Amino acid sequence: MEVVVTGTVTSNSGAPIEEASIDVQLPDDGTSLASTSTDGTGAYETTFVVFEENAPDQVQLTFAAAEFMNEDVIVGFGTEIQRDITLEAITPKSLGSEPKTILQQDTFQYQATSR
User: Fold this and answer.
1) The model scores a pTM over 0.85
2) Which of 2, 52, 66, 70 has a Cα-to-Cα distance from 16 of 20 to 30 A?
3) With bands split at pLDDT 50, 70 and 90, how would you rate the model's confidence at 91?
C-alpha cells in the first residue's frame, strides 16, 4: 500500500520554514521509511510503500531546520498522514533544555533542566 505524508512547517511566529527536513521512521527501531524537505511555503509531501501485512501501528516524524529546535512526533499509521507542526526557534533559554517528544497529537513529554 502507498502511504502519503503531507503537512506544513512553520515557526512560532507563523512564518513558513523553507528547507526544513522531515524524516519518516519506525518508532521502535528508527528504520527510515521516507524523507523530504519543505518548499518555500513550508509545505511538504512524501510517499512510501509498505506491504499491508507489515504495516506499523505508528510512525515517527522527525522535523529539523536550521535555527530551530528539532521535533519528534509519533502519529498513528494510515494511508494518508497529515501533520502540521510549529517549530520553536533556538534561543539561549531553549539551549538549556532537552528535546521534547510529542507522544500523541497533543500530549507532550518534557525533559527539561531549569536554569
Assistant:
1) no
2) 2
3) confident
